[in-house]
């Protein structure tokens, strides 16, 4: 009776693997499987097979062709202006950063040997020695200073200019030491340096028609909007990996064309799959899917400075009226995680797991909504395709509302112009927030009293104070406590309902091994080239 | 060639040149009217007013539009297409490979579809109202009505995903042998041929039938000429003008209008290049692509006109 399970699919396989990676125990997994109607013995067999597929020794050699989901003539090898997934994959192939972010988004050292500070304001970066660029030049402090300073030059047009601006002084002390001084204390500097745009290039580089980095692959060919070919760097400083000889990377923007290319064997890896294609992939043997919890979310915003959000009990009522389970199952097709009305995803190490999401409870919702005096009135809700899945979420809310006498009028507006005309403006509307690497960036961008994107006009002096305190706090435990407290404040006081964190799907040929999700983005946070290998 | 004919051909070329200049101005004016510019698009969410101003200055976007236009036009006449604002590569370099790919696809499609379409069109005109004519007409109408993305996607699902006979993507760069070329081009070329040959078949058929109704054909019939002689010697030369125009119109579509086929087969051609350029407001690239489309269109139409002029027996003296 080992593999005699009906309804078990590859998407379920991906879900189990996702749970294992997040450290779910065997007991929890079996509970998860049994909830899905799988018997205990059969469940054990499934877990066994899921584990086997991913435990083996890497092997060198082979060529891989992988497809991303964006490509255009704007494709670039210049880290500062990179802005699409395709660029990030190439950056990770050809360059290195001072730090990289692991599966918990915690910074690990890459080109830096250590990054130290006493006050979170002045930082000393010690560089790894014996690292060479593809041109043969040895990495030294001047390369780092040049790479970081160019983000401040307006002519470069750097994407991370706003982040780089806090570095008021970047100085080479000796060939392997750089000091960075910040305008004000920020304990997140090592994390920020792990952002893709902060890749290290050689001092004085102006020509980006090819890449001269320290990364795992050499750039053999790069044609913007067409493809790039990366060949293994024989002198790579890290001894583990890269494994494959050559990676051809192309972009296929069309969803169907991308999946077809995988199924026909033209490519072995495709990034960002539409969940609609799950069935098509399951119908053919030899392919696998990978779930990456992205941390991005679509949220329902109620402005606290105008009706209906300002009526007491209204926001609380909506929190209990949102059927999170239903949204996860029906709207997101099971790909995602239930969220607790605060922006830090489960993959963020400061996520407060003790803070439980408001339970779906129509009776409680009815109680709070009638207290607000708005029950039986018709409330307009603005939704749009611009905010992923918001129209579907609004319909779920509408249905639940109808059962307790709360009417919602869904105003579906065009995607074009949504962000400038409706988002942040309408009294009750949907937003869509991309994942960010640090807790501070979420809170200062979205919840500080003077934040540019304060979606519900949440204002709290106590919160602002905690924000500044947490930013400069070097003690991890204290910091976690501060951020935990802030999450509770946001979940209970702000007018932003966050029903679930989204996840992304990638698909690959079963021959490709070594791919693991990284919350920085699809395809292992775009860094898969260095880690994958091909089974015989 | 007579003097009248030379004069007419020269006049035709002069008009083409004026059209070319006019189109370049219109394209420039319209792209300038698009909301947002490259500095804002490149910076995205990080677009603070200072950052945008700084980048604009660095790219010389702060100069008056007309000055930028004249500079670009001047460059065009000495063969300098300028530098892409987005990735700072020379436009000519970006275009050359893509143009080659587009021309290859267009050439293969032309070689396949034009002879087939002309043969079918003429044949159905000769056997007008026969079962053959009806089958061809019905099929070509059916093919015109099915959108090309249907044909292309259907073909990929059947031949690439299920049967696995052909690749789902067309890698124009990897064609080294003839059989490989057949495999790579089979699906895109068939999808494109469907669209353009249907048009050509119908136009050819109509043009030939039109001339078959003229008095001089009746005259030929009365003097006892054979059917094939009537069609090939008397009707066809006179129908050549309209046919050449129909073919030219269909072919001009092959360079700039094949965006759907390029997207589905991920074929790196010119249409996608121009679409990218518009999305990023990369002016020099948009301009250059538009000019290439315009030039190819003018070239084809001019050739068609010249064929019409030259083939007209009344002008041949």
Automatic annotation (TrEMBL), chain A:
Gene3D superfamilies: Dipeptide-binding Protein, Domain 3 (3.10.105.10), Periplasmic binding protein-like II (3.40.190.10). The keyword Signal applies. It comes from the Bacteria. Keywords: Membrane, Signal, Transmembrane, Transmembrane helix, Transport. Residues 107-452 form the Solute-binding protein family domain. Its main location: periplasm. It is found in: Periplasm. The chain crosses the membrane at residues 29-50. The keyword Transport applies. Belongs to the bacterial solute-binding protein 5 family. This is Peptide/nickel transport system substrate-binding protein.
Automatic annotation (TrEMBL), chain B:
PROSITE patterns: ABC_TM1. It comes from the Bacteria. It is found in: Cell membrane. Residues 99-304 form the ABC transmembrane type-1 domain. The chain crosses the membrane at residues 12-34, 106-127, 139-162, 182-201, 243-265, 285-310. It holds the Pfam family BPD_transp_1_N. InterPro entries: BPD_transp_1_N, MetI-like, MetI-like_sf. SUPFAM superfamilies: MetI-like (SSF161098). It is a multi-pass membrane protein. Gene3D superfamilies: MetI-like. Keywords: Cell membrane, Membrane, Transmembrane, Transmembrane helix, Transport. Belongs to the binding-protein-dependent transport system permease family. This is Peptide/nickel transport system permease protein. The lineage of its organism: Bacteria, Pseudomonadati, Pseudomonadota, Alphaproteobacteria, Hyphomicrobiales.
């Amino acid at each position: 009776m080992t593999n005699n399970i009906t309804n078990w699919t590859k998407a379920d396989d991906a879900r189990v693997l996702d749970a294992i990676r997040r450290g779910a125990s065997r007991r929890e997994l079996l509970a998860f499987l049994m909830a899905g109607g799988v018997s205990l013995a059969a469940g054990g067999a499934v877990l066994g097979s899921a584990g086997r597929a991913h435990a083996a020794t890497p092997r060198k050699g082979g060529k891989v062709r992988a497809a991303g989901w964006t490509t255009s003539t704007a494709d670039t090898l210049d880290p500062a202006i990179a802005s699409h997934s395709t660029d990030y994959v190439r950056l990770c192939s050809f360059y290195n950063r001072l730090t990289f972010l692991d599966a918990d988004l915690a910074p690990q050292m890459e080109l830096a040997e250590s990054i130290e500070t006493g006050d979170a304001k002045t930082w000393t970066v010690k560089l790894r020695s014996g690292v060479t660029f593809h041109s043969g030049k040895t990495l030294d402090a001047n390369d780092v200073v040049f790479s970081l300073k160019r983000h401040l030059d307006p002519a470069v047009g750097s994407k991370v200019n706003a982040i780089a601006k806090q570095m008021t002084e970047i100085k080479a002390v000796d060939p392997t030491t750089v000091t960075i001084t910040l305008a004000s204390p920020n304990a997140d500097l090592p994390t920020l340096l792990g952002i893709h745009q902060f890749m290290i290039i050689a001092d004085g580089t102006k020509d980006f028609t090819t890449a001269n980095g320290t990364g795992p692959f050499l750039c053999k060919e790069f044609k913007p909007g067409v493809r790039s070919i990366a060949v293994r760097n024989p002198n790579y400083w890290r001894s583990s990996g890269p494994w494959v000889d050559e990676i051809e990377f192309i972009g296929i923007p069309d969803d169907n064309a991308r999946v077809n290319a995988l199924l026909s064997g033209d490519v072995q890896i495709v990034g960002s799959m539409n969940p609609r294609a799950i069935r098509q992939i399951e119908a053919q043997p030899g392919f696998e899917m990978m779930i990456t919890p992205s941390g991005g979310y679509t949220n329902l915003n109620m402005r606290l400075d105008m009706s209906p959000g300002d009526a007491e009990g209204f926001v609380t009522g909506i929190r209990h009226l949102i059927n999170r389970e239903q949204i996860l199952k029906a709207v997101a097709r099971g790909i995602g995680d239930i969220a607790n009305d605060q922006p830090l995803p489960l993959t963020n190490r400061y996520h407060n797991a003790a803070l439980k999401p408001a339970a779906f409870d129509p009776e409680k919702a009815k109680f709070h909504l009638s207290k607000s005096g708005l029950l039986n009135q018709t409330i307009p809700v603005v939704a749009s395709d611009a905010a992923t899945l918001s129209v579907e979420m609004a319909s779920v809310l509408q249905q639940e509302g109808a059962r307790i006498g709360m009417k919602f009028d869904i105003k579906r507006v065009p995607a074009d112009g949504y962000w400038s005309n409706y988002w942040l403006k309408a009294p009750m509307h949907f937003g869509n927030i991309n994942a960010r690497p640090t807790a501070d960036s979420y809170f200062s961008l979205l919840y500080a009293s003077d934040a540019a994107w304060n979606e519900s006009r949440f204002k709290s002096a106590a919160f602002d104070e905690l924000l500044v305190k947490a930013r400069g706090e070097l003690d991890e435990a204290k910091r976690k406590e501060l951020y935990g407290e802030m999450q509770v404040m946001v979940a209970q006081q702000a007018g932003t309902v966050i029903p679930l964190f989204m996840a992304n799907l990638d698909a690959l040929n079963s021959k490709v091994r070594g791919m693991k999700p990284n919350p920085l983005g699809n395809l292992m946070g775009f860094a898969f080239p260095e880690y994958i290998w091909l089974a015989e | 060639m007579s003097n009248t004919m030379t004069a007419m051909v020269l006049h035709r070329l002069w008009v083409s040149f004026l059209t070319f200049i006019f189109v370049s101005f219109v394209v420039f004016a319209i792209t300038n009217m698009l909301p947002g510019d490259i500095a804002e698009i490149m910076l995205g969410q990080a677009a603070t007013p200072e950052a945008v101003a700084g980048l604009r200055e660095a790219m010389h976007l702060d100069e008056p539009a007309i000055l930028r236009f004249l500079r670009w036009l001047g460059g065009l006449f000495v063969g300098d297409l300028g530098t892409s604002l987005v990735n700072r590569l020379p436009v000519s370099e970006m275009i050359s490979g893509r143009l080659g790919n587009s021309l290859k696809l267009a050439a293969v499609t032309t070689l396949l579809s034009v002879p087939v379409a002309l043969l079918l069109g003429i044949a159905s005109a000769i056997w007008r109202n026969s079962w053959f004519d009806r089958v061809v007409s019905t099929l070509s109408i059916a093919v015109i009505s099915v959108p090309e993305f249907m044909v292309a996607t259907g073909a990929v699902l059947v031949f690439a995903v299920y049967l696995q006979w052909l690749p789902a993507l067309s890698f124009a760069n990897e064609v080294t042998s003839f059989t490989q070329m057949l495999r790579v081009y089979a699906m895109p070329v068939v999808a494109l041929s469907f669209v353009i040959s249907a048009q050509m078949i119908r136009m050819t058929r109509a043009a030939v039938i039109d001339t078959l109704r003229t008095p001089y054909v009746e005259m030929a019939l009365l003097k006892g000429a054979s059917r094939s002689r009537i069609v090939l010697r008397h009707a066809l030369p006179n129908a050549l003008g309209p046919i050449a125009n129909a073919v030219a119109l269909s072919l001009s579509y092959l360079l700039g209008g094949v965006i759907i086929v390029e997207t589905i087969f991920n074929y790196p051609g010119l249409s996608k290049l121009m679409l990218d350029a518009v999305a990023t407001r990369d002016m020099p690239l948009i301009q250059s692509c538009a000019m290439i489309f315009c030039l190819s269109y003018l070239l084809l139409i001019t050739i068609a006109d010249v064929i019409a002029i030259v083939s007209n027996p009344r002008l041949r003296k």
